[in-house]
Amino acid sequence: MRLHEKNKKHSVPLRDPHQDMLVGIRELAPEIKARAAEMEAARRIPPDLVERLRSIGLFRMFVPRSHGGLELDFPAGLEVIKALTQLDGSIGWISIVGGVGSLFAAAAHPELYRRIYQDGPDVAICGSSQPGGTAERVADGYRVKGRWPFASSCTHADWIGGFCIVTENGKPVAGPQGKPQVRVVVLPARDWDIEDTWHAAGLKGTGSHHITLRETLVPETHVFDVEAPPRMSGPLYQALREWLPLVHGTFSVGLAEGTVEDLLALAHTGRQQLYAAVPMRESETFQYELGRISANLRAAQAFHEVQIASHWRRALAGTLRDEDLMIEGARSAVWLATTCVGIADACFALAGSSAVYDSSPLQRRLRDLHVGAQHAHAQQRQYVDVGKLALRRSAEDAV
């Protein structure tokens, strides 16, 4: 079995889950950094590292305590994700999947949820939110088939989900506002095929391959609407979409922090670039650019901290499910992605020719941030909705 004793072994509650996780990450940090090239070459996280992450509680941090999970406050979980992202972009990305996967599962039918966590809370769940499949209604459930891209973490997942357009008699079923109805189908990982397609510019270690499902009869309990009213109580589980921009912001900020740390480490080696009169750290040009970069990073950190605090207050008050709040989160995610890409670009340029080698972490950080910024939640087209919201609020204030 894929979960066997490891879930039972690690299901003993931690004394201080959040702090114990951060301690575990610090202990794991040297190994993660040393194995970055290995992860890129394999295009996945090595299985033994996945198990180390499982053992420190990554896959259970947002699982409810009623099912043996840690049920961390969302800001605490984001701190864990950021700590991992500072070490390596691919590790940070799969930590997002590991956390968000359990939040997606919280919307599942109770029977499916019990099955997912029947052997313990340390379950790796992944999937693709692009509606790459169809779910045809039949008497016994749904007949599902399709092909989905960007299934990050599929190489080590225990369960996999894919978003589908619901059809009946071969035609899409209308949902809200006349748009096609979309549902997520979740099945054990063994039921899916993985296509080896992840040859990408960055985030190479995430194993974000295509996944396919041949025509499969799926019981109704394995198909659900992630936008439906929450099935579980507690601030973590009352909404999902509103959380997603925040995890992308965490990725951007964490990776930018790691990039600046790598640049400072290079400067402290005493490196002196060709034709330069003094070492990097003594150059006023370097100091000026570093000061500008530091200011941009602090602005990004502060903006992200404010957005997290605002969302968590709304979650505690039971008012998180809100379209305007979703747009506000998108605004922060897009701005943070753009700003942090700029930070990585500037650090790469300051490092000089040494940064072009595969051995330099700066070139990897640069690539990972650019690829992360291509995600739908970080794309600048989101600013359209942000602008509409600003216009609407201005008109309302004028009345």
Q: Estimate what percentage of residues fall within beta strands.
A: 5-15%
Mean pLDDT: 94
Number of distinct helices: 12
Order of helices and strands: HHHHHHHEEEEEEEEHHHHH
Q: Fraction of residues in helices? A: 40-55%
The secondary structure category is alpha+beta
Identify the CATH architecture of the largest domain: Up-down Bundle
Low-confidence runs of at least 5 consecutive residues: 1-12
Top CATH class of the largest domain: Mainly Alpha
Main pleated sheet: 8 strands, mixed
Number of domains: 3
Rg, Cα atoms, Å: 22 Å
Global morphology: globular
Give the name of the CATH superfamily of the largest domain. Answer: Butyryl-CoA Dehydrogenase, subunit A, domain 3
Q: Which fold name fills CATH's third level, the topology of the largest domain?
A: Butyryl-CoA Dehydrogenase, subunit A, domain 3
Distance between the termini: 63 Å
Q: In brief, what are we looking at here?
A:
The chain has 399 residues and is an alpha+beta fold. 48% of the residues lie in helices and 15% in strands.
Draw up the topology in text.
Blueprint: H1 4-9, H2 17-34, H3 36-42, H4 47-55, H5 74-87, H6 89-105, H7 110-116, E1 125-138, E2 141-151, E3 159-168, E4 171-172, E5 182-188, E6 193-195, E7 209-218, E8 223-224, H8 244-267, H9 284-317, H10 323-351, H11 361-372, H12 383-398
Parallel strand pairs: 1-3
Antiparallel strand pairs: 1-2, 2-7, 3-4, 3-5, 5-8, 6-7
Helix pairs in contact: 2-5, 5-6, 5-8, 6-8, 8-9, 8-10, 8-11, 9-10, 10-11, 10-12
